[in-house]
Every structure is written in C-alpha cells, then in structure tokens.
Design brief:
Number of helices: 11
Oligomer: single chain
Mean pLDDT: 86
Structural class: mainly alpha
Low-confidence stretches: none
C-alpha cells in the first residue's frame, strides 16, 4: 500500500471533517433561533448558523494538524485514510474494521437506548419533548458525530493526550493510552452539555447523569477502537451508534404512540 504524505493525509482528513461541520447547516440549533428572533435581531438565522460553524472549524483545523504530526510517532493509525485506496489489497483490513466498528457501534447504540428506557422513561421523554426548538437531522448526527467529532476528540485530543503522557513518562505502555482514552471520553461527554442546557428549560439530575455517563461510555469504546483498530473504525462505530439509536428510538416511539 502506498502511504500518503502528511500534507495529502491532512487535506483528506480536513475535507472529511469539513463535510461533517457543514452538515450542521441541516439542523436547527436553539442558540441560532434565540439570537435571530425578533425584528431587531443582529443576525439572520442563516448568518448565525454560519458563525456557529467557525468554532468547530477552528477546532477541526487544530485537531487535524496535531493528529497528523503525532499519530504515527505514537503507533496510532488511520490505515485506510492514510494510504492510496486499493480495494483488493485492503479487503481483509476493511472487513476487520467494518466488523469491529459495526459491532462496537451497535452495542453502544443499544445500551444508550435501553438504559434510560429500563431505568427511567422520563429521561427519554424529557430529551425528546424539548420546549426549545432543536432539530438535529439524522445526516448531521452521522457526519458531524461520526466524522468531525472523531477527528476532533480522538484524532486530535486523544492523540495529543497520549503524546503528553509519553513525554512526561517516557513510556508508551498501555496505561498511557488508557488514561488518554478516559480523559478524552470525559471531555467528550462534557462537550455535549451546552446543547443540552440550551435545549431544555430544566435539566434534571437523571438527564445530566445520563448524558455524562452515556457519552463517556461511548467515548471509551470509540477511543479503544481508535487505539486498536484505527481512526476509521472509531468513525464507523460512532456512525453505527446513531443508526442503531435512531432505529430503536423509532420503534420505541411507535410502540408508545
């Protein structure tokens, strides 16, 4: 397999992440609706949505730069994206990535759906009956969550944490990766809180616990897959989580309707 140069790889990763960020335009965010409401609003809804893209775009650029410079030094990988695609040569690798990613994503999606259902139906009700306007499209969940978030949180942040721990400890033992996975997973979960508080008038302890615990668990799975299988595997798992969650949630709504 022919390996891409760092610049070629960085451009490919950035364009994939950009696709995820642009998918935010397909969704309605409560912040954009609040600030564009009224006759004296400083920005239109579209203008504010475009401004909202600026922050993740900057984070994406930094993450791509950091990840590209460091990931190979640490033994991390993106086996498909970092090489020129050759299906015949990559077929066994693709099968392994698809199997691990699908299994991990379906498992996470099923767990995240069943835990609130079995524990407290009110959590699902509060999350899906929001008083604030919020409409995250399925395509946004797949592209922003599955691609952009993985580039930012795993390829960027987790890789940086592994590098920092390596520099401090002079070791690349398993504990270095495990600590980086845990820390990046907690931060990944915390990053979901602003949208929750923006879309709910009151955030119950149950919802807060669920959001933090569920996304931390998901982050642990994605981080492990990035470590062991590569960035593509964590992306696929994240996507499959949303596919599974969407499918099971549709069934649940039909049953409870």
């Amino acid at each position: 397999m022919t390996r891409l140069s760092n610049i070629q790889f960085a451009i490919k990763i950035f364009l994939l992440g950009l696709l995820g960020i642009l998918s935010l335009l397909l969704s309605q965010l409560p912040l954009s609706l609040d600030l564009s409401a009224g006759q004296n609003a400083p920005y239109s809804a579209l203008q504010l949505q475009l401004l909202i893209l600026l922050q993740p775009l900057i984070i994406l650029a930094v993450s791509v730069g950091v990840g590209t410079l460091l990931y190979r030094k640490l033994g991390l990988k993106a086996p498909i994206l970092s090489t020129k695609f050759n299906f015949k040569v990559m077929r066994p690798q693709l099968k392994a990535i698809a199997k691990s990613g699908a299994f991990g994503g379906i498992g996470v999606g099923t767990a995240l759906m069943l835990v609130p259902v079995l524990g407290e139906l009110g959590i699902n009700g509060q999350l899906h009956n929001r008083p604030q306007a919020l409409d995250i499209s399925f395509l946004t969940a797949l592209l922003y969550g599955g691609i952009a978030e993985e580039i930012m949180m795993r390829f960027g942040l987790m890789t940086l944490l592994v590098w920092m721990l390596w520099k401090i400890s002079k070791s690349t033992a398993d504990w270095v990766f495990i600590v980086a996975i845990v820390v990046s997973s907690v931060l990944f979960a915390a990053a979901h809180l602003p949208i929750v508080y923006a879309s709910l008038q009151t955030v119950s302890f149950g919802v807060l616990t669920y959001i933090l615990a569920a996304n931390t668990i998901a982050g642990l799975v994605y981080g492990y897959l990035y470590w062991k299988k590569g960035l593509e595997c964590s992306m696929l798992a994240h996507m499959m989580t949303h596919v599974t969650f969407f499918f099971l949630n549709s069934i649940l709504r039909a049953v409870l309707a």
